[in-house]
Amino acid sequence: MMLRLIAGATILLALAGHVAAQETPSSAQGRLRVRDLGVKIGVYQPGPLNAITDVAGVRVGQVTLVEADDVRTGVTAILPHDGNMLQDRVAAAVHAYNAFGKLVGATQVNELGELETPVLLTNTLSVWDAARALAEWMLGLPGNQDVRSVNPVVGETNDGWLSDIRGMHVKAAHVIRALDSARGGPVWRELHGLTSEPQASAGRHGSCMIVVATDAPLDSRQLGRLAKRAVLGMARAGSSGSNGSSDYAIAFSTTSRSSPQRFTAGTPSLSRLSEEELSPLFEAAIEATEEAIDNSILRATTVHGRDGHVVPAIPIDRVREVMKKYGR
Predict the structure, then answer these.
(1) What angle do CA 195, 281, 55 make, to 5 degrees?
(2) Which of 100, 117, 125, 190 has its Cβ near the most Cβ atoms within 10 Å?
(3) What is the pLDDT of residues 95-114, one digit of tens each?
(4) 71-91 pLDDT, tens digit each
(5) Do 17 and 10 form a contact (C-beta atoms < 8 A)?
(6) 163, 117, 102: which is closest to 303 by C-alpha?
(7) Contact 297/315 with Cβ under 8 angstroms?
(8) Predicted structure pTM score
(9) Structural domains in the chain?
(10) How far apart (Å, rounded) are the C-alpha atoms in residues 86 and 226?
């Protein structure tokens, strides 16, 4: 079994990495991930791609919006499998570490213990437009013609430092494109660098959406325990969980599946790991979160946004010098 993670907020703000790549085609050259610097996070080895798509069936799609000098936003779609999720749901749970945010659909996920749509990540003021687009996309899938309710799950971070967030530039067409273009493979190569708001200019209030995927057979309660541990990876990466930081973790299992008819007579109960077998998964979730955040910082390229705001890239050469100084 494998456990891989994608740090949702950093994927949202990775849109900034696309900006730099478009402004200077060679700007992403030389941007590294933490293991490229010889740093090994924790004790577990990553999968071959070191991405959430190492978990079989998981796909990711993303649309970046770069317009004029003040639109730096977009939407990311994470699909647990390639089927109809309303008819083939996955066990899931949400942990709100600091609920200073808008996570549409979270209460139903925790109430029923399942995820019935892909997970979308976008900017704060585009959550509701994205949720409607996701609902319409789900209702339009073959087999859903008689469905009268759907629970879209949409998380957010505030990209207003770089982008005209009040313009609500993410539209239904962008959401649909992200969903329809979702695929497996080395996602980080497509999304380039990931970034966060600069500490000095934008304050210490950046948010983080963590999405944990595993093929371990866990039920929703166990996935809730896993999601809680993932947040510890933020602390190991240096986060203090400030007042204005909306920090959530969503965890799902691709092998713990159910359908609306699962309570019919004779339906076997889902098998799951014992509680004693969870500790290695807890540790892996923490390590994966920490490494995803470290990679997001290292892969980021310098981005210019609205009102002359700039998010500078971490200088790789300087990082190497510091590591050498301390014997790393």
Answers:
(1) 65
(2) 117
(3) 999 999 999 999 999 999 99
(4) 999 999 999 999 999 999 999
(5) no
(6) 163
(7) no
(8) 0.86
(9) 3-260+269-320 (3.60.70.12)
(10) 24
